[in-house]
Amino acid sequence: MERIYANRKFIIIGLFLLVGTIFVARLFYIQIIADKYILSANNNVLRYITQYPARGLIYDRNGKLLVYNEAAYDLMVIPKQVKSFDTLELCSLIGISKEEFIDHLKKARNYSPFRPSIFEAQISRENYGFLEEKMFSFPGFFVQPRTLRKYTYPAAAHTLGYIGEVSPELILKNPYYRSGDYIGISGIERSYEELLRGKKGMKIQVVDVFNRPKGSFQHGKYDTTAFAGTDLYSSLDIELQLYGEKLMAGKKGSIVAIEPSTGEILCMVSSPSYDPNLLVGRDRRKNYVKLSQDSVIVPLFNRAEMAMYPPGSTFKLVDALIGQQEGVLGPDTRYACPGGFSLGNGKMVGCHSHQSPLNLRESIMISCNTYYCRVFRSIIDKKSFRTTREGYETWRNHVMSFGFGKKLGIDLPGELNGNIPSPGYYDRYHGKNRWTSMAIISLAIGQGEIGITPIQLANLAALISNRGSYFVPHFVKAIGSKDKLNEAFSTKKKSDIDPAYFDIVIQGMEDVVLSGTARASKLDSITICGKTGTAQNPHGKNHSLFIAFAPMESPKIAISVVVENAGFGAAWAAPIASLMIEKYLTRKVKRTDIENNMINGTLNSAAKVIDQ
Amino acid sequence: MFILYLALVFIGWLNIYSAVYNESHQSIVDFSQRYGKQLIWIVAALFLAMLTLLIDGKFYSQFAYLFYGITLLMLVAVLFTGKTISGSKSWFQVGGIALQPAEFAKIGTALAISKYLSIIEIDLKKPRNLLTVTAIILFPALLILLQDDTGSAIVFLAFVAVLYRAGMSGRLMAILVAIPMLAVLSLVMNKFILIGLLLVAAGLYYLYTQRRIQTIIALAVIYIASVGLVFSVDFVFQHVLEQHQKVRINVLLGKESDLKGAGYNVNQSLIAIGSGGVLGKGFLQGTQTKYNFVPEQSTDFIFCTVGEEWGFMGSVLVMGLFISLLIRIVMVAERQRSRFSRLYGYGVASIIFFHFAINIGMTLGLVPVIGIPLPFFSYGGSSLWAFTILLFIFIRQDSYRYELL
């Protein structure tokens, strides 16, 4: 049987030879006849150059440029393409030693022999000029342009924030970013990152085997354009900010100023601060380490929103409003003050000596502790509440409608909630239903477990000046161009206090500055309404607080000042607030003696101390 | 034959060395690099070869079905416990080595069909026998398809040559050959033009041969079947093929130039080979392969290194070696006394030929990108060992020939 088919072997062998011949013919064609492959091979390297768009600029409310970009150049290397060359020349051109050169090249090789990595970051513009001419003699190296952030003024570091290299964890979560890209890490740079960063583009260049660019690949058909970042117009008033930082120099604390009619933040000072330009460029890492490791003054910490303080006497305003709303307080409600408020077990909440009794308006001006302990109790123990818990809950809800106890929702990262303890907290601490208004009496005068942030305080000032309504404080006024207003913060919020009850409180606040606890800080031409506070500090000297708004008739600025470990509110916080108001409303400060005291005085001395 | 084998393996290794060559790794025996590993595989392969030769010749024919069964089991097992590499769940991970049962299944199938066809009364013209042997071939092929390794599955088509030599109807063979050709034509040309041409061909055939009713009927049936084929190819292409497969075919046909995807591979391959010129750029001097522009250049596209560095001369030499090996296998197969050995030999030649034709065809841009290795050249333990065993079983069978006398 086999013999019959034996001849088929020829067909099979024939098939082998046929295929072989076809292949040989094809080889002949592509290797010998066609030129284009040889040419293509030489022109074959595709280099992907990422086009980094310019990051959005940031302006202040008057159009002054705050943050801009400066060109920088990274020297990149593809280790496998590096052939021997005059290394000394390259070293001298970019200003590194031969050892550093070897070290950098080894690092690049460890990263990847085939992929480009940064050989030397941020070469200066002058060096770049000299270098670019000679690039062809350094095979395997090329220059990638970058931009660096620059800050016009050495101020507002916490608010503006800074940018840094994106972390590997974030790259995993968000593939838009590649290793070595920059991203906003704090402040506005972070919260508006998506707008500021624009969109990367990609240019594909054809480079021959010897690393010489030959033009764009397919006439740029596959290139994508980069989109520049969106500019931001902030509500910051840089002159006011600079002034505030000058006043706060050498002290720990913060200043927050808001425009009450819009919620726009005019300035946010956190002291101690630092020059934002320190965290830019080649010295960035060095400076960052220095700043972040300073655990005494913690300069990277934005006290205005990340620090919590007991509000002290400033909180009496809140009690005054809640009391009226709950119907237990009126303009003529009087309480006598025998020097303090008795807690019943021999202890007392002390008060400074003053005339007695006081009505509501006077109680604000004089800041009487006894008065407010009485008011607080009358709210909590109101007959219509069945339990203390119910009374406290009602009180707490009122307080939270002022924006306390939870984040306001400003457009900066890291805002704290603040703390208005929940009823459950006291249940756990004292036992369920086993606490009365006396147990929590320190809340009445803004002490105890209550915690607020300076921005919440400033918001309180704005809220009072608007008779109960406020806009969420924010920095960015307009996006893209001056007219494109930021719609995200245009919702008006209201506290749950009837607007009619605010008048008497405002009058009280006017008195505070005219003849009350802050009378040393009054301005001749402008009516300031304010309230002092002294927050007790178990770790050291008391903190000095002050909130205010001005002018009384149509408020343009609401401000809160916190100076840590500075004693009475009237001693430091009030004068500073007053100077800031003067600066903002008149653009000039005439009371240079007070100014000098604030700037140059140490915290041991003080301006005229007024009895609280 | 042995010499040819050694020559191919050695040259293959040289080219892997070049393809993976990296200036910072100077030592030849660096085992972290592929050429180092391939050296290990080669040594192991030689060892396997020796082992294969030592085993008694009759062993292979007696245990043919057993081998086949074992490879089938491995194919099933890998579906459950296998590792997925490059989209195919076709690998076992054993220690530091990855083994591909599909490669060994080719050996098992070759043995099995040789055994089956060597049964004295077998006549492949009987449909039942034909179907049985087809089933033996298709079974492993389907299992491999389930692994998502279309390339390796297609290789089993090569066995049709064995069937042809074993007495399958010549007409059937002609039809089997005509079908893919027609399919290709229908992808390249406009359907209707093609159908028209077929009509013309049918008409001519009719005119120039006996005009019998049977001829007309047969002609009509063939014509209708062809038209059906043309349309179904079109349908399969549009609706059944996966996107990447479609693209590859289109790239091949010149309808698409997907420079970043499938087209990129072939384009780079052509550039690499084409730039070799007559004499090539020299050992280790291939710029395209040196800078890794050709993807998969140590596995599926290994021939590019040959083309670029050894040029036309070198490429023709390598191809010559392969063709010589194939022809030699066929000649040796013919002089076998036992049907089993002869058919097995054809099995070996078919498989090696199929790999050779598809792989090199792919690098030359003549065949769509189907990922199958070039025997003895492409990097990979499974592939090298499987081909080695495949070949050496046959060498053993050949020497056994003397013992039969």
Strands of the widest sheet of chain B, in order across it, are: 1-2-3
Count of domain modules of chain B: 2
Number of strands of chain A: 20
Strand-residue proportion of chain B: under 5%
CATH class of the largest domain in chain A: Alpha Beta
Helical content of chain A stands at 25-40%
The rough form of chain A would be described as: elongated
Please work out how many helical segments of chain B DSSP would assign.
17
Architecture per CATH nomenclature, i.e. the level-2 architecture of the largest domain in chain A: 3-Layer(aba) Sandwich
Poorly predicted parts of chain B: 22-28
Query: Percent of residues of chain A in beta strands?
Result: 15-25%
Helix content of chain B: over 70%
Tell me, briefly, the overall form of chain B. globular
Give the count of helical stretches of chain A. Answer: 22
Question: Could you spell the SSE succession of chain B in H and E letters?
Answer: HHHHEEEHHHHHHHHHHHHH
